[in-house]
Here is the input.
Amino acid sequence: MKDQYELLLEKVEKPARYAGGELNTTVKPWAQARLRVALAFPDLYEIGLSHLGLRLLYHRINEVQGYLAERVYAPALDMEEELQKANLPLFSLETRHGLGEFDLVGFTLQYELSYTNILNMMRLAGIPLRREQRGEAHPLIIGGGPGSFNPEPLADFFDLFLLGEGEEAFLEILDRIADGKERGDDRAAIKRALLQIPGVYLPEYYQVDYTPEGRIAAVHPHPPAPSVVQKRIIHDLDQYLPSQELVPWMEPVHDRLMVELFRGCTRGCRFCQAGMVYRPVRERSPAFIKERLTDLIKKTGYEEISLTSLSSADYTKIEELTGALTDCFAPQGVRISLPSLRIDSFSPELAAKFVSGRKGSLTFAPEAGTERLRRVINKNLSDQQIFETLEAAFAGGWQRIKLYFMLGLPTETDEDLAGIVRLAKEALKMGRRIHARAANRVQVSVSVSTFIPKPHTPFQWRAQISSEETLRKQRFLQEELRGKGLKLSWHQVTLSQLEGILARGDRRLALSLEKAVELGCKFDAWSETFRWDLWQEALSFAGLKPEDYTRARSYEEILPWEHLSAGVSKEYLITEDQRAEEGKPTPDCRGRIDCKTCGVCPTLRARPIMAGGEKD
Here is the structure.
C-alpha cells in the first residue's frame, strides 16, 4: 500500500503536502496503539499546518502512552484525481493508513466554507457520510473548533462534537472510547458513555421539530443527554503548551513559531463571535512563555516567533514580555511578530520592536467609517484616535497602511460608507505630508468584507444584507476609492451569502450539503473553485432559499444552536443588541472585580487570569 502512495506523490504538483516525516513528527507503532486518532483539517496542507489548535492536539495526544494521533489535510484537486484513478482511500501523513482504519476521525470546524471539504474527505476515505449509514467497523466522527458552537448543518454526518477547548476534554473522550472498546462495547454504548463528559454534544440525542414555515418549533433532548451543553475551558493555560513543534517541508501560510499569549477577549465587539465564545480571558505568564519558546527555538530552528491572540497588544505584560524576548532572541537572529495591533493600543515604540530592517505595512481594523457606527458595534474608537494612531505610524517610518472595514453592519447608512472613503483619503493625505520626500511610496489599502451575523453574538438575530445591496455598496467604494496610493479589495458577494447561510444554518441544510458535494462543490472558500450555481441547485434540491437563513430573527424564535452554550447568557446578548440599536457603548470588562455581566464566569465557575498571577 505504501508503495502505491509513493507512486502517487510522483504525479502531483506539491508532493510535500502528503509526504509526512516533518521535523518533530511523531510516528508510533500502529499495532501497539490502544486507540488511533486521525486529526483532519479540511483545507490544504499549507493552511492546515498553520492552524495552532490541530498542532496542539496532535502533540497532546501523542504524549499519552497508548494513544496514536496522525494528521490528514484536504487533498488538492490533482491528488484527489490520482487517488480515484488508483482506487486508494485518503490517507494519513504519518503511516499512510486510510482514514477508515482509525478509531476516531476528528475534523477541525474552523470555517463554514470548508464543510463540503469535510464531506468530500469522508467520501474519498470510503466512510459513509450519514451517521446512520455507518456501522461498528467505521470510525467515530467528531468535530471541534469554533464551528462546533453551531454544528447543526453537519449534525446528520457527525457522531459527536466538542464545545470549547480540547486539551483536557479530548483526552477524556479518548479514555471513554478506549475503555469501551476494551470492554467490547458497541458504538451505541460508547456514545452513551460519552454523554457523561461535559462539553460533548451528540446530535442524535436531540430531536428537532420544525413548523410548516421551516422555523424550529422545539428541540427535545433524549435522556440522559443534558438540555443544554456547556462549553469546556482550560483554567490554567500554563499547564498546556507542547514541548515539540512541527517544522514543515514546504512553506505554510504562517511560517513561524506561534504561541498564544492568552485566550479570550473582553473588548465586547458585538459582531465578533470569537470575542464571545472564547471568554473568559486567561493569560499565560511571561516566564512560562519565555522558557517554552527558548526550548522550542532550539528544537525547531525557526527564525520568527509570532505572539498570537485575539488582541495580542492587550496582554497585561506585553512591554515586559517583548523586551525579554527581544533581549533573548535578537542576538540569535530570531524576529518577534505581533499579528494583531489594535488602534487604541498602538504605539510606534511597541510596533518597532517587531520590525527589523525595512518597514513593511501596518494593519488596523476600524471596522466602520463613522464614530456613530463604531459605537453601534462597540468598537469604541473616535476619529481623533484613528488619525493620531495613523500619524504616529507614518511618523514611525511606515509608508503602507492597511485598513479593514465591514459592509452591511446593523444600522449602516450611506453616510457610514462615505466615512470609509474619508478615512482612507485623509490617511493617504497625512502619509504623503509626513513622507514628503517619498510621497509616491505612500499607500493606503482598504479591505472590505460583508458583515455576517454569527451565532452567540449580540447580532445573531440581525439580518444579513442581500447580494444586491452588497454589490451597490461595493460599487460605491470602487468609484470613490480610486487613484494613486489607494487600493481597494473586497469579498466575493456570493461567497459571503453562503457563509451566512451555513453560519446560522440548521439540520435541514444536510441534504443541500450532501447534494453540493455530489455536484462537485469543494474548496468553497477559494474563489477560483467556488460554484454558486451548483450551490443554488443544491439548496433548491432541498427546497431551501438563501433568505431562509440570512433573514432577521426575533428574540423569541428558537435558534438552531440554542441548546449549545458558550457560557454567555441570552439576556446579555439581547441587552447588547438593544444597546447597539441605541448607539450605546459597553466598556471593556478587563480589570473589573467580580464582573458577572455576560454570565460566562459564574456559568463556567471560572475567573479571568492575568499574567503574573493577578486575578480579576
Q: What stands out?
A: The domain at 2-230 is CATH 3.40.50.280 (Rossmann fold).
